[in-house]
């Protein structure tokens, strides 16, 4: 009796337990499935958001006419993340010369060019169907310095007479400004000195270093490097002599600006942020930030060059290319014999983006 009752109790007790496990398993399975679905949707949403963010990053190919500390705000805009903040990914290439830079822009090898504004006038003179438009100014004075082979305590521009002077490429802003300044000091570049301007832009510094010429027109950091190495001595600034001029400007084909207005505005805003940052920041800190672009140049030289450019207001404080600067540019071009007729400001300059971001 006891054995029977004992065997019945476990059986009666076990039956509900067998019924309970399938229910729990079903519930666990349902919850797991639900959790999996939620997780998959979450991952998909994250992926979609990631892809959406990735898609909003706009690549922009920029061709700069040369690599110079003169363009410090551009490098600062990249290194400080100002372009990145605007959703732009900058692909920077150095094209070494105005003709090569403009070729890259016109052929579609670059979206935006950083080059002298005179190049847009040359393209306009060829009656291009897709003119090149200046939309953001980076520098507002000439960026070259007059370097003498020997130290001169009391420099006078008359000292250039009867000398051999290594100028820049004919028709380019450095050369035109150089001639403009010489004439300002009653020196005829064609008859009062031996003007050498058949040396390729990238080789002018090395030509002077090897012994050619008594004076040379150089950008930074070459000018300060020569001074430190005892190869030359800065005796004057063409930027201080020439006044404000749209020396280097960001420009693009009219069709690109029309199809990418949002991108152009973001680009200009990043440049404006960089212009303000460079102006408000100690030159040594600016030098530290842009040093990756000048790996072979001593940090003290970079800082010295930045300070020189800031002192003579070479870095534009905003990206607006105004009418007075445009007129000064054409006066210089006309004096150099490179301009047949004046071109209205609004024909090749669009200040709408610069004015919008500078508000």
Describe the structure.
It is a single chain. The protein has 359 residues and is an alpha/beta fold. The chain folds into three domains: 1-56; 57-139 and 245-307 and 317-357, D-Maltodextrin-Binding Protein, domain 2 (3-Layer(aba) Sandwich), CATH 3.40.190.10; 144-242, D-Maltodextrin-Binding Protein, domain 2 (3-Layer(aba) Sandwich). The chain contains 16 helices and ten strands. The strands form two sheets. Strands 2-1-3-10-4 form a five-stranded mixed beta sheet, with helices on both faces. Helix 2 (72-79) crosses helix 11 and helix 12 (283-290) packs across helix 13 (299-311). The radius of gyration is 32 Å and the shape is globular.
Question: Fraction of residues in helices?
Answer: 40-55%
- If classified by CATH, what would the architecture of the largest domain be? 3-Layer(aba) Sandwich
CATH top-level class of the largest domain: Alpha Beta
Rg, alpha carbons: 32 Å
CATH superfamily of the largest domain: Periplasmic binding protein-like II
Average pLDDT score: 88
Count structural domains: 3
GO cellular component, one term: periplasmic space
Keywords: Signal
Main location: periplasm
Subcellular location: Periplasm
Descriptors:
single chain, 359 residues, alpha/beta, D-Maltodextrin-Binding Protein, domain 2, 16 helices, globular
């Amino acid at each position: 009796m006891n054995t029977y009752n004992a065997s019945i109790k476990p059986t009666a007790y076990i039956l509900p337990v067998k019924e309970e496990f399938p229910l729990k398993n079903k519930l666990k399975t349902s919850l797991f499935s639900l959790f999996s679905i939620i997780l998959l949707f979450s991952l998909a949403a994250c992926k979609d958001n990631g892809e959406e963010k990735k898609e909003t990053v706009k690549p922009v190919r920029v061709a700069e006419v040369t690599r110079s500390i003169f363009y410090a705000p551009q490098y600062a805009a990249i290194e400080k993340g100002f372009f990145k903040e605007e959703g732009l990914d900058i692909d920077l290439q150095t094209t070494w010369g105005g003709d090569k830079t403009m070729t890259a822009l016109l052929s579609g090898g670059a979206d935006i060019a950083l080059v002298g504004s005179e190049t847009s006038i040359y393209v306009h003179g060829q009656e291009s169907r897709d003119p090149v438009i200046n939309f953001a100014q980076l520098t507002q004075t000439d960026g070259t310095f007059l370097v003498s082979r020997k130290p001169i305590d009391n420099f006078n521009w008359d000292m250039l007479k009867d000398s051999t002077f290594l100028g820049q490429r004919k028709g380019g802003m450095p050369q035109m400004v150089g001639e403009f300044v010489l004439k300002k000091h009653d020196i005829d570049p064609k008859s009062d000195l031996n003007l050498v301007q058949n040396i390729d832009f990238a080789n002018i510094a090395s030509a002077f270093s090897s012994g050619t010429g008594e004076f040379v027109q150089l950008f930074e950091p070459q000018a300060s490097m020569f001074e430190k190495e005892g190869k030359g001595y800065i005796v004057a600034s063409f930027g201080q002599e020439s006044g404000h001029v749209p020396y280097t400007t960001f420009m693009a084909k009219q069709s690109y600006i029309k199809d990418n207005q949002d991108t152009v505005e973001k680009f200009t805003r990043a440049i404006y942020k960089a212009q303000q940052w460079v102006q408000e920041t100690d030159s040594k800190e600016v030098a530290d930030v842009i040093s990756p672009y000048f790996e072979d140049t001593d940090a003290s030289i970079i800082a010295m060059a930045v300070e020189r450019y800031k002192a003579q207001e070479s870095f534009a404080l905003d990206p607006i290319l105004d009418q007075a600067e445009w007129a000064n540019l054409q006066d210089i071009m006309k004096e150099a014999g490179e301009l047949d007729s004046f071109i209205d400001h609004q024909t090749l300059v669009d200040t709408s983006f610069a004015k919008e971001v500078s508000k």
